[in-house]
Specification:
With 326 residues, the protein is mostly helical. The chain has nine helices and six strands; from the N terminus they run αααββββββαααααα. The longest helix has 32 residues, at 219-250. Helix 2 (46-74) packs across helix 7, helix 3 packs antiparallel against helix 4 and helix 4 (165-193) runs antiparallel to helix 7.
């Protein structure tokens, strides 16, 4: 009795099956490796993640609240509503766009070939085991050295340094404007729900949670009041931060240099603006996606010192051992 012989290709051998399983394991390992590398690149701890989540939820919530609820009720003229909607949307996009650039812009020394010899004004980082340029400091949270490090921003989960300082400053600028812009409409909106402007409504606006617990506010009015006071308080805090960093920009100082009274890099307020925001600094106010080339590469900076000037003691950082600060 004879049987029809099927071609061999319809009956894969064992080594073909093993090859398919091996390829599947390789794909899974590559996916895990890429996921791990992505997590390491965007190193986020709990405090940074919570701060970023709070910021993102607050900005989106206040924007939706103002556009869909407050604005149509405060302003009855449809053409004026369109104008305010366009202005509010531009501020909202500018806030998120600059925040994204702060997060995605790498301002560390990871991808820079650093010299093995210690140059003047340079110092050695014992954590990175590499020489570091002037104005560079090590961040314990980011676990790397940051060019012209200013501080670690918990809301962005990133250090603010040479390449993303302009995005951070414009982010503060538009966030403060957005908060005050929203608070202006909220002052016309919220008092109607709190029974008019009075001492009772003012106290209720300041601590709405207490009035909600004791049943003096409904859940809807509580949420409205909470968003209103969030915009107002955030605007005051963010505006103070903006003024602080704007003053540092005008003197071309980082937070460390301001605290230690280092004014070596002060070139005059006009040149300081270019040093911090780039040659096309005015374009950064329009959109974070416009290119504005910085004069410094992060490895050397222009100073106001003469060749015969003795350098301040602040540059002798522990006898050329890398200075670390949070």
């Amino acid at each position: 009795m004879q049987y029809n012989k099927c071609p061999l290709k319809y009956f894969p051998s064992k080594h073909v099956k093993y090859k398919i399983l091996a390829n599947k394991n390789i794909v899974e390992k590559r996916f895990l490796h890429q996921s791990t590398m992505l997590f390491r690149r965007f190193r986020i701890n709990f405090s940074d993640g919570f701060s970023f989540g709070f910021l993102a939820v607050s900005v989106v919530s206040v924007f939706i609240f103002e556009i869909l609820i407050v604005l149509p009720e405060v302003e009855k003229r449809q053409n004026v509503v369109y104008i305010h909607s366009i202005i509010g949307s531009f501020i909202f996009i500018s806030i998120l766009g600059n925040l994204a650039k702060v997060i995605l812009t790498d301002t560390s020394t990871k991808r820079i070939m650093l010299p093995s010899l210690l140059k003047p004004l340079w110092h050695f980082c014992s954590m990175c085991e590499a020489n570091a340029p002037p104005r560079t400091h090590h961040c314990d949270r980011c676990n790397c050295c940051i060019l012209k490090r200013d501080h670690h921003c918990a809301f962005a989960g990133r250090c603010i340094g040479l390449k993303n300082f302009r995005f951070f400053l414009v982010f503060l600028f538009y966030l403060s404007i957005g908060c005050f812009y929203a608070s202006m409409f909220n002052m016309y909106f919220i008092w109607d729900y709190l029974g008019g402007f009075s001492l009772y409504s003012v106290v209720c606006h300041i601590v709405p949670f207490v009035f909600f617990i004791f049943g003096y506010l409904s859940f809807r009015v509580f949420i409205y009041t909470l968003l209103s006071v969030l915009a107002l308080i955030s605007g005051l805090l963010v505006f103070n931060l903006f003024i602080l960093h704007a003053r540092q920009m005008l003197s071309n100082q980082t937070t460390f240099e301001r605290n230690n009274s280092i004014k070596t890099y002060d070139l005059g307020w006009k040149r300081n603006i270019v040093e911090c925001l780039g040659e096309k600094w005015y374009m950064t106010l329009i959109s974070p996606f416009f290119d504005s080339v910085l004069p410094s590469d992060g490895l050397s900076f222009s100073t106001n010192l003469n060749s015969n000037t003795v350098l301040p003691e602040s540059y002798a950082l522990n006898q050329n051992v890398r200075h670390r600060h949070v």
